[in-house]
Amino acid sequence: MTVHGPVMPIWSCGGCGLPWPCATRKRELRAEYADAPVSLALYLGSYLVQATEDMPWTPAGVLHRRFLGWTREAGQAVPAVQQPGTATAPAELSRGA
Asked: Of 38, 39, 62, 71, whose CA is between 20 and 30 Å from 78?
C-alpha cells in the first residue's frame, strides 16, 4: 500500500504534502493500471467527483487536468470521434422506372 494517498477534504498527498495525485502516486498508478487505462480513468473519475464536492471553488478544468488530464501520455493515439453534422448519408438506391 502506498503512503501517497489523498488526505481529504483538502486533497493533498499523505506522503509528501503536494496536491494529490502527486508525481509519485501518478507513477504508481501508471504501473498498477498499465494494462487497464479505462479502469484507471474510472478510478480517478470517482475521486474527481469527490474532489468537486470537497472543493467547489476550484474550476472544473483545473480538477479535470489534475485528476484525469495526466493519464494520457504524449503521443498516445486518441480514438477518432465523428463530429456532429459530418456524417454522410448512404447513397440512395436507384429505383426502377
From this structure: 62
